[in-house]
């Protein structure tokens, strides 16, 4: 049980009817949290932190109840779901945000594009700590394992500084068959590549191809996940890099 009832927003990018969020929300509610579920109506995978064009207009919603939890769907992205909850559209703003359980892994530097991870980073914009959880399978058989890890992570992050964000990947296996939990660095994306081509209609398009396999880098989320470990990576969103030299150099060019 958490030390006090904490309001937790649960969202995802697979849609509010997806099995991952349907497994996660009841598990978190059983831990004693005040659960609010708001997620996209449809699959919004890969949308990153997009929400432009989704404000200053009415947002269509839908809802249903399962296992005692109300699931709300919105016509929008995960980042928009977080923003709406934080501004009080669905009642008191959440104290914490939990994004997932995403179907399929979210590893490497390409998590920048993940709607699951972007939802957590959007929460951190206003100082709300968040956890993004993904499971390493497209058709998972062990949702309860990821839900258990998510609940433990939520309990830990509640005591950390405001705006703390974790991205977690969980192997799709029973809890007692996990190799352990490890901090992981972000791998360079080498599993897929984007290739330019032309559609039969003559229009340009980009397709995703599998990259040739190569040795994994030890200590990365890719390597540790392959060895059966739960990977945990603290991340931050957009932040300033202190580089006075760059500003000085640009200033000199502008006055020439």
Structural commentary:
This protein is of the alpha/beta class and 256 residues long. The chain has a single domain, classed as Stationary-phase Survival Protein Sure Homolog, Chain: A. The protein is built from six helices and eleven strands. Helix 1 crosses helix 4 and helix 2 runs parallel beside helix 3. It catalyses: a ribonucleoside 5'-phosphate + H2O = a ribonucleoside + phosphate. Keywords: Hydrolase, Metal-binding. This is 5'-nucleotidase.
What's the arrangement of secondary structure elements?
Blueprint: E1 7-11, H1 19-30, E2 34-40, E3 61-66, E4 69-74, H2 78-86, E5 96-103, H3 115-124, E6 129-136, H4 143-157, E7 165-171, E8 180-183, E9 192-198, E10 204-210, H5 221-226, E11 229-235, H6 244-255
